[in-house]
Amino acid sequence: MTTGAQITLFNSLGRALQPFTPIEPGHARVYSCGPTVYHYAHLGNLRAYVFTDTLRRVLDWKGYRVTHVINITDVGHLTSDADAGEDKMEKAAAGTGKDIWEVAAFYTDAFKTDLRQLNILDPSRWSIATDHIDDMLDFAKAIEANGAAYPLDTGLYFDVTKVPDYGALAGAPPQDDGGVARIAEVEGKRHPADFALWRNSPLGETRQMEWDSPWGRGAPGWHLECSVMSIKYLGAQFDIHTGGIDHREIHHPNEIAQNQAFTCTSATGANYWLHNNFLVDRGGKMSKSKGDISTLQSLIDRGVHPLAYRLLCLSAHYRSELEFSAEAVSGALTRLRRLAIAVQALVDRHGETHFPLDRERLEGDLPKAATDLLTQFDAAVSADLMTPQALPLLDQAIASKALSLEEKLRVIASMDRVLGLGILDLRRADLRVRPVDALITEAEIDARLAERKEARAAKDFARSDAIRDELAAQGVEVMDGDPLGWDWRVTL
Ligand code: AMP
Ligand code: ZN
Question: What CA–CA distances, in Å, run from 217 to 94, 149, 199, 487?
Fold first, then answer.
């Protein structure tokens, strides 16, 4: 049984907010484009997965059964999303002298570790591109048999004129889309937007990842894998497809075109195409290829709890650009600390952090003051995942004077199923982290602060200031009079 407000989602296909109605009542089938595992995920990539996790948690909280597939791209993604450049995986492996399969396994593990640290739930299925080479060959052969692909010396190419409305998702005619660079890349392409379904290895070159095919020995194009795996695990038409907004321009229009050519219909594969906006820094969109690798681990190393990054993502709507800066992260960390301290105080008084998983039991018999808050929360998250409006309701639940301790904790537990902050289990001590490169230990910081306290009591302000400056030089900011009682924090 699904409950509460009607979910609306912003569908990039048509650029409109639409009520969400799954194909099969009560069951949401979701496919999310996964990472290309040639490097650590950067914080921008991780924003994409906090978004899909929020979507999945909202659907789940509202009573849908969710089948969620995320793929792992370990082959085929070129340094340009179109048909230009080198294979990202081959290039990365060549750079390190490592075996490409090892590179893929290493960064896949690192990615999953990041997700765990962000409380991102495992999908129903991880689907690895290189496990599906035969499926991809069959799919490409079917497209060719349906007359929508043509072979060249360099591989098998998709003919975009063979499907209705190619590029409708991008919202721009394909020839306006970087066409010149793309024509120049491959000789014999019939149309600038045509793209490779299969790419043959360059003559005389042996690649680490290559397979035989009717068109030559080589590797599948990147777009093919997502069509193949989404249809294989979710059906020819499923509910929701997600990805970053960059995928709206090339990757997803190409997936749609492949799906249409494969099924010989105008069906697009997914009914709702959802795209998260970018995490940007002052230099623009964060990207791995720019060598701009702000990773989750780099934040942790600077003393930031990973869930502060989750909270930062939730504090912006997924369709808005989010600017990443030390101040923004620091603000999120303070907000997380404030929440954790307040909730921990409630938990300590109550002595219980485990509440029923079943929402009916969790929220059963709650008074109106509680159900009002939950109704507002439901309205916020059901309205295209408006997490920035949902977060203050968590603050209101914590501060409410109308609710008993038990009632408050049940409301908080319910909201946290969606927010995924694990707030009932976050301890103050978990959030008191010093940067790994700090030479000073926590015990030393405490000792210096005790000395400073003595100096201040003796009105020796010069000494007190000197200690503060000395700590500041080691990346520790002394916090006098902090309302939450923190005596220091790391400077980012
Ligand atoms: P990739 O590993 O490059 O295939 O990207 C994984 C996911 O991250 C895709 O859904 C991208 O669209 C998304 N993505 C890439 N850069 C950013 C960014 N700066 N902000 C948000 N999402 C991004
Ligand atoms: Zn994809």
Answer: 20, 17, 8, 63
| Chain segment 33-70, per-residue pLDDT in tens | 999 998 899 999 999 999 999 999 999 999 999 999 99
Check residue 5 and report its DSSP letter.
S
| pTM of the entire predicted model | 0.88
Q: How far apart are CA 8 and CA 19, in angstroms?
A: 4
Chain-centroid distance of CA 77 in Å reads: 19
Residue 102: what residue type?
A: E
- Distance CA(248)–CA(171), nearest Å, equals 9
The answer, yes or no, to whether any atom of ligand 1 lies below 6 A from the CB of 76, is no
* Low pLDDT (below 70) residues in the chain: 1, 79-85, 172-185, 284-293, 429, 432-439, 482-486, 490-492
How is residue 406 written in tokens? 């038990």
**How much is the pLDDT for 41?**
94
Residue 152 sits at the vertex; the CA angle it makes with 149 and 158, to the nearest 5 degrees, is 25
| CA 462 to each of CA 445, 459, 491: distance values in angstroms, whole numbers, following the listed order | 18, 9, 22
Q: What SS3 class is residue 94? A: helix
In short, whether 243's Cβ falls inside 6 Å of ligand 1 is yes
Q: Please indicate whether residue 246, judged by its CB atom, sits closer than 6 Å to ligand 1.
A: yes
* Atom from ligand 1 closest to the CA of residue 288: 3
Atom 9 of ligand 1, residue of closest alpha carbon: 244
- Going along the chain from its start, the domains and CATH numbers come out as 8-276 (3.40.50.620), 288-429 (1.10.730), 439-490 (no CATH)
| Residue 292 CB-density burial (10 A; 0-12 exposed, 13-18 middle, 19+ buried) | middle
Dist. CA 25–CA 13, nearest whole Å: 22
Q: Which residues are within 5 Å of ligand 2 (an ion), measured at CB? A: 33, 226
Measured distance CA(173)–CA(125) in Å, rounded: 35
DSSP E strand boundaries for 100-194:
125-128, 149-152, 155-158
Contact assessment for residue 373 and residue 396, using Cβ atoms and an 8 Å cutoff: yes
Order of strands, edge to edge, in the sheet holding 149-152?
149-152, 155-158, 195-200, 218-220
